[in-house]
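Attaching the record inline, Q. Sequence:
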Amino acid sequence: MEADGDQVLWDVSRGLRDGEYPIYYYAHESHPPSVRQLSADFEIWLGEFLSYSAFIAEDDD
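Structure, as predicted:
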């Protein structure tokens, strides 16, 4: 997404919220490294990711 080695994480520490685990992004090359919420819902996140411009560009290579 932003750099090789970054991670998408599901926060299971507080259990399901509205039937979903919130999804976070760990950017290890940020200074300092950072974690931010991408979505509260897997289906929404996946739909947005599939239209993410960098993901589409990788398919064209």
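The mean pLDDT is 81. Residues 7-60 form one domain.

More tomorrow.
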